[in-house]
Amino acid sequence: MIFISKMNHLHLRTVQKKVKRFMAEGLVIMLLMSLCGCGDMTKTIKSGDMTIDIGKEYKEETLANVTWYYTSPDGIALGIRSLKDDVEKSGLEVDSSQDYAEAYIKANAIPGSPKLKHDENYVYFEHSKKVSGTDYSYITFIYDNEDEYWIVSFACYKELYSTYKKDFINSADSVTFTEE
Question: From residue 90, how far is each of 7, 83, 84, 85, 87 by CA, in Å?
């Protein structure tokens, strides 16, 4: 009987080890799945005839004089729609997204005379600014869409900019326009 009892105890130990190993492997798999970013990490927002994909961490907020505004723990994303007729009525002579970007830089006294860069779908520029003692980096994209200009701008803490710049550009590349 002692022999059978020892056999059952050894068998029980083996089963316990297997269960522990199985549970540990399951926890590791679950942890890896949560870290690998499985699933879509963006959400699509729509404003008027424009759609853009931004990170899921952004939450909708309101801000005066902007069409849409989202904040995240590390930064902001915003969009401003300007009808070309309104731009013309304001007295600005603007014939392209580049002209509009130059006028926007001047009107907002953006420091450092940022250099305009061109992409197939937009003009953009980067700059940094200190606000209330904190350094921020910005990237702003200007789109020319039929009878309107769109400004899409992202900002984050300056020390995080190199981490987020690719995400900002991916968002800018996701912009589409449809007829309303």
Answer: 91, 11, 10, 9, 5
